[in-house]
Amino acid sequence: MPYRPATPAPTRAAALVASVLAADAVLHLYWTTGATWPAADDTSLSYAVLGTDVPFTPPVLLPLVALLLTAAGLVLAGSRRPRCVLYRVGTLAVAAGLSLRALAGIYWLFAKEAGTAFYLLNFLLYTPLCAVLAVAALRVARWKDAARA
Question: Whose CB among 2, 58, 119, 120 lies 3.0–4.6 Å from 32's, allowing a Cys bridge?
């Protein structure tokens, strides 16, 4: 008899995507307080995270926090109600956004200066993570609940 996990794979994929997006939202929310961990100051934080100088202020960060939490919620909802068109389209939009970030990360590997904090983080963390999350979100969006079919 084949092994059947208690939790369907798309549900685990949704939990992965939502967890990472929510953790990213919490980190950005933390930065709205003026804290710069793990960097020494705003400028070094901006260069490590984005590769350029961008203000890490609430007007810049709070919309991003809202977007990340909305994306996490859409992917989770899409895993629980796979037949809902709104959640499916939302999850596809999250997958598309993550795919675009992964593709931009590949471009930046050739366009940015090697040896910088951003280059290393982009190469080792940001781009691979976005690629994995894009595939996971796409899996959630394409899943059809067999029990309801």
Answer: 58
